[in-house]
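Page 37, continued from 36.
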């Protein structure tokens, strides 16, 4: 569904991604692991058009998207849950969710999507009138995830959803990622530092180090899965 062919990116003179090749297959959960500064967030920014590759190409459903503007990329069915959640902190939970549906005209569809969000995380329904800035970190992550889902994306990009969360909340978020993938067929690219948790739910994993893919492994292959964990944990 998504493919990077030899993608290199720079911030000014500094090269961040170097000849990155990766694939996100339709219907799968792909995870991209890497320690601080490896270039994970830059990868997401490159997909959504916020960073333009200096060489290489990004394909989505077989077509190049690296020269498109961000709104046009989003319209193709790609939604992202940014690192740090980035909610509109003065707006309520429901107002934040509705912003995620701004590309949808059909009011019935919007109401259905809201219901779906509340089914995924019943706690959000209880708190729908609460100002987002007063939510716990875990609840904010739930809102950020549902806000992205409100646009019915085909591809969901998640940037370090476990960051700063207690283990029980990480479990709830990861269980929900699996549900969204299995029940709705949403394709997911999960960016994580939390290697164990991410590998456990991934169909395929890549390890990024200093802007280069140093390892990749199918999630079902126990041996290479172990290898990937060792390599990643060793470097982090
Ligand atoms: P983290 O887990 O810490 O978020 P990351 O793997 O997501 O790390 P990136 O945010 O992609 O890493 O950053 C990769 C490198 O690019 C880092 O060295 C970072 O300092 C640099 N970088 C990121 N954004 C910019 C920018 N706007 N201008 C210049 N350099 C940047």
């Amino acid at each position: 569904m998504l493919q990077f062919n030899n993608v290199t990116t720079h911030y000014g003179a500094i090269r961040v991604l170097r000849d990155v090749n990766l694939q996100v297959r339709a219907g799968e959960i792909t995870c991209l692991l890497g320690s601080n500064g490896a270039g994970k967030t830059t990868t997401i920014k490159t997909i959504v058009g916020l960073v333009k590759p200096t060489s290489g190409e990004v394909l989505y459903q077989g077509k190049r998207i690296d020269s498109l503007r961000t709104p046009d990329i989003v319209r193709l069915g790609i939604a992202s849950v940014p690192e740090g959640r980035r909610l509109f902190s003065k707006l309520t939970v429901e107002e934040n969710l509705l912003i995620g549906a701004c590309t949808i005209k059909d009011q019935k569809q919007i109401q259905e999507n809201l219901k779906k969000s509340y089914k995924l995380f019943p706690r959000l329904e209880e708190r729908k009138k609460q100002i987002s800035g007063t939510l716990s970190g875990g609840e904010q992550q739930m809102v950020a995830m549902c806000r992205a889902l409100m646009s019915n994306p085909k591809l969901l990009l998640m940037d370090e959803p476990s960051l700063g969360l207690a283990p029980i909340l990480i479990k709830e978020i990861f269980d929900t990622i699996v549900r969204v993938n299995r029940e709705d067929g949403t394709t997911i690219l999960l960016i994580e530092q939390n290697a164990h948790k991410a590998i456990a739910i991934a169909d395929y994993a890549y390890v990024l180090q200093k802007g280069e893919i140093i390892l990749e492994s199918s999630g079902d292959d126990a041996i290479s899965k172990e290898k990937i964990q060792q390599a990643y944990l060793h470097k982090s």
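The radius of gyration is 17 Å. Flag for discussion at group meeting. The beta strands are 2-11, 14-24, 29-33, 55-60, 63-64, 78-81, 155-159, 187-192, 204-209, 212-218.
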